[in-house]
Each structure stands twice: as C-alpha cells, then as structure tokens.
Amino acid sequence: MKSLIYILIFSANIFSQDIDYSNLKNWVAHPQKKDFSDSIPEPFANDKIDGRVDVFYIYPTIYDGNFDFEKMNADINNIEINESIEIRPILYQATCFNIAGPVYSPRYRQAHLSIYNKENKGIKDSVLNFAYQDVKSAFEFYLKNWNNDRPIIIAAHSQGTFHAGRLIKEFFEGRDLYKKLVVAYLPGLFIPPDFFNSVPQCKDSSDVNCFVGWRTIQKDFIPDFAKSEKVKSLVTNPLTWKTENLNYGDFYKHKGAILYDFNKLRPNIIDAQIKDNILWISKPKTWLTWFYFSKDYHIGDINLFYANIRENVSVRIKKYFNEN
Q1: Lower CB density within 10 Å: C or N end of the chain?
Q2: What are the sequence ranges of the domains in the chain?
Q3: Tens of pLDDT, residues 28-37
Q4: What is the largest CA-CA distance in the chain?
C-alpha cells in the first residue's frame, strides 16, 4: 500500500511543469547575479581568481527530515529549503571552487533523503531520475547559452555526486566535451571501478580530464554501509591526492578547514588515510567537534578539506592550460 502511495505521489511530480532555466531565480548560483557562491573566506581575500574556467556545482541533499514533505521530490520554490541550500552547501562547499571562475548551480527538485531507505528500487530510481532530469536540463541550457566553449569543472557532493556522475556519462564520455573537463570533484558517494567507461580516476594532484572522490569517516571505524559493499570503491586522499590504500596524509599537510565560522581557517586539525573503501580521518582537533558525536563526517566531505581543495583547483587549472 505504501509503495502505491509513493508511486501516486511521484506520478503527480512527473506531470509538473519543466523548470525554466533562462530565469535566474531558478539558479541558486549564477555569475549574472549576486549570491552566496561569490563569498570568499577572509583568509583567502587576496586570492587571484583565475576566471578562465566555469564551475558547474550540484549541491547535496538538503530535503530531509527537517522539512515536512508531501512529495518525494522537493519544490524548488520552497523558501525554507532554498535558504538552507544557500547558507549551507553553497556557502561552505561551492565557494571552495570559485577560485576557478564563475559558479553555476541550478535549483533542482532533489530527492528526499528518505528515498535512500526505500527497498523498492523502482521507486528510488524514478525519484532520483526525476531530480536528474532537472540537472540535465539546466546543464543543457548552460552549455547552449553561457559556456562559450570554456573549460569546465564539475563539482558535487552526495546526491549531487550521483547526478554529476550521470551528467559526465551522458555529456562527456566519448564526446568532444570531454576535452573541456578540467576535473570532477565527486565526494560523498560510493564510486565503483565501472562508474565511468572512459573517464579515469585522477592519480596525482595535477592530473586533468579525470575525477576524484572520497567518503570521510573517523579513524578506526568502518560503517555498516562500507562493510556490506561487495566491490572496491575508488577513493582519493585530498591531503595527498593519491589513491593507494592506506596512503597517509599527516596533519601538517592539512591546509585548513572552514567550519562554523566561514571566515576562520583551521589548518592542521586532521590527518587522512585511505582505508579500503573509505577515507579515515582523526577526530578534528578543535573544540567545535566536542559536541559532534557521529563518526561519519559525510557532512564535512568538502569543507573539512576546504583549503586543500581550493589549492588543488588552481594546480589542475594550470596543468590544463599548459597542456591545451
């Protein structure tokens, strides 16, 4: 009975009006308007913005148990959800990449967090596919109207990474656009070896036309989801940008996290090493984590490594233009 209800709810979404991505209100981040993706933490205020590369950023799941929901896909006109997207992932994730150039991030009818607990694969796939169609439509509009043959960085997290993976398969693999892919940052998701057919995992800090990804867990803890995984996940250590199992990045390699205070950089508070399918870190050495009891740091996959990622973006852009 519950499955039937979800199918009926989803069916109501299928016939919803397509999103008009020519309207800037349907972009949470866009260079033609002032938004949170333009923010730069004070420690990076003197950074020279490269400006030659577009960033297409897909935010993670915000539509969760904190919101009452009637549909399995979010309403992009929900003010509360939109504000949460702006002050959380856009501010603490998307800004990490703005050293490259303008950030484009479409609002999309993301799947509710609870969809990941649904046993009915058909419903789960349908709801996620509905969300992806928005992302795809936005990317197509961006390519046609704003890209102007510029190189692209794809950046995403969690559900956003799921959609980014599909986007790369559909628009980059085996196509001319692949030459324009500087790098894809895809943290927060299990990435099997066959995730892509031809886009490789980056093996070093300056590799281009490739992807990186990781899932952040406290050292000496292996979550149940990782225990149940039957195949290898491709993992990158964002302190070393290496991929070898047990590859270790010491505290001194940690350039800095951006936590609750957006304008305060906290360096040398974590180390990191790859352990099988996950990235292990020590509990961050800051009082701010005293009241964080989870050993799963999924929420911090990007901002825990904020300065390392920001630096790496510049390294890969330089390599890209040296080769092109």
Answers
A1: N
A2: 2-14+21-323
A3: 999 999 999 9
A4: 59
